[in-house]
Specification:
By secondary structure, this protein is an alpha/beta fold. Helices cover 24% and strands 36% of the residues. The protein is built from 1 helix and 8 strands; from the N terminus they run αββββββββ. The strands form 2 sheets. The protein has a 4-stranded mixed β-sheet with strand order 2-1-4-6, with no helix packed on it. Strands 3-8-7-5 form a 4-stranded mixed β-sheet, with no helix packed on it. The N and C termini lie far apart (48 Å). About 13% of the residues have low confidence.
């Protein structure tokens, strides 16, 4: 009976380690990123992130701005000073966006596969 208990504990411990190890790379790759809106610009103008990353835009300008994808994948409401808008990018690709109130304001998010090289 004791051998069976020890074996079950070892199997359970090995299973727990395997589950935790499988989850760690995904958690390590998904991170948050910020884009500042100020002086009629998005900064950085080009941001590269891994799939699963949430990007948050923060309006630090003293007038309203929006964040709108060229492909209509995402669009914020008008953001007043200090307002924020977040979107999680789940699919690799290049996503151009602009301010719909000031269309000359443009920028790009490049999303890489989550299982790529660091």
């Amino acid at each position: 009976m004791t051998i069976t208990i020890v074996r079950n504990i070892c199997v359970a411990a090995a299973l727990a380690v395997a589950v935790m190890a499988a989850a760690l790379p995904v958690a390590a790759l998904a991170a948050d990123a910020e884009v500042k809106i100020d002086n009629f610009t998005f900064s950085p103008q080009r941001l590269t992130v891994k799939a699963g990353t949430t990007v948050t835009w923060i309006n630090e300008d003293d007038i309203p701005h929006t964040v709108a994808s060229d492909t209509k994948l995402f669009k914020s409401k008008a953001l007043d000073t200090d307002d924020k808008y977040s979107f999680t990018f789940t699919t690799p690709g290049t996503f151009d966006y602009f301010c719909s109130l000031h269309p000359h304001m443009t920028a790009t998010i490049v999303v890489e596969a989550a299982t790529g090289s660091n």
